[in-house]
Write a structure and sequence with these properties.
mainly alpha, globular, 4 helices
Length: about 80
Amino acid sequence: MLEKMQELIADQLSVDADSITESASFKDDLGADSLDLYELIMALEDEYGVEIPTDDLESINTVGDVIEFLKSKGVE
């Protein structure tokens, strides 16, 4: 899942896929602002067919957080 996520995030945030790790913070490490994160969440919802409620966004700070969230929704 991380490899697919790296491609998606690299495309959305215009960063090098190799710099994206599970511990990478969207804001601190990948330079994402709130608009970037909103667009990324929309892309993730489209890609994985899940809805990510706004309330859950506060707990999603790293790539690993997104992966754990998706796994909790049954995405592999």
